[in-house]
Amino acid sequence: MEELCIRLAQIYPLPEPALSKFLSIWKSTSYEKGAHLLKTGQISNYMYFVGKGAVRIYYQKEEKEITEWLALDNNFFFSIQSFFQRVPSRLAIHALENSEVFMMHHDDLMQLCEQSHETEKLFRKMITTSLILSQIRMESIQFENAHQRYQRLLSSSPDILRRVPLSYIASFLGITQETLSRVRNAR
Amino acid sequence: MEELCIRLAQIYPLPEPALSKFLSIWKSTSYEKGAHLLKTGQISNYMYFVGKGAVRIYYQKEEKEITEWLALDNNFFFSIQSFFQRVPSRLAIHALENSEVFMMHHDDLMQLCEQSHETEKLFRKMITTSLILSQIRMESIQFENAHQRYQRLLSSSPDILRRVPLSYIASFLGITQETLSRVRNAR
DNA sequence: TACAATATTTGACAATTGTCAAATAATAAA
DNA sequence: TTTATTATTTGACAATTGTCAAATATTGTA
Fold this sequence. Notes:
The structure is a homodimer. By secondary structure, chain A is α+β, with helices and mostly antiparallel strands. In chain A, 49% of the residues lie in helices and 24% in strands.
């Protein structure tokens, strides 16, 4: 919870009493390694924050599993389209390690946003952050080759290799496992 | 202006008096073909809406010009990172045709957002729309080949080929002009 | 420890796309 | 209309990455 507060304050320092109310709608849960936070076809009701731990967002694409996102310690994540558009999620989410996860229900958030302009503002800034990250990732995928993408990931998240199977990382980077294996050794 | 109102209402129907105030901060300008709306290195102060016309957002990458976005008739566009983070823009924007452009200054928008919760909500929804589009485009770039990306563009914006030079479209799709030329003929 | 299951690496080859140069087509200017 | 300029297409070849199969390494479990 500590870390969640810190991350929120970095995005926008919500004044009281809105802050207390906002924090109160986050629920804490523990997920065992392998457990699902969200399954394909469910409407994703939550925005999540992983404290200590790691989760993977993925989906099925022609008999392959595509890793859409990896979130390690102290990061937000959610199934964007399902959460916002209230449609069944194409994405599934599971824990890669035993993880401490905080989650906030869509309806609770919307209710607070109605009541509190300041909370709406915080939420707007959270989405803005996601949008900027999305742009950066898009550019990386479009213009960097396998080696450059791997290096970028390494420098932004150095311990990811020790904690996440190579096949997931490769898919997240948009390359095959074999290519990633070659790229990270030799050359 | 008509079309701008329609598009805004689709995103969120802002009630009066907020709507009138919001509309009043949009300024209308005409740009001649080739004219710049924004040059590299400037801080991008505006969110834009092109009425009738076409614009191109691009940047320089190792002696090549990369087309980051193309906006035709009745669409929003802006230099996301510069607009939100108030840093000099890596992107430039110019008109591909004589264009009718509406623009809204960052500071005016922020002032209205402070005053009006409803306006903040509209803005939040506009960003959410951008985020979802960004996700869809990212997936297209990551998992579709040149031919599929071209087809997707054609179906979402059929007249783009008649109005935008092939080299810009190719760059926008993340492929070379030669590959696009081959993909759209034969095969 | 030894075995089984899973994960990663390696090799051979194919598919896709990029690069560079030249030819052709389309457009704008004289 | 003719010419000059710009845009698009085509060919030959190279680079990158993907695919499939097999080998090796790692991890978890009896």
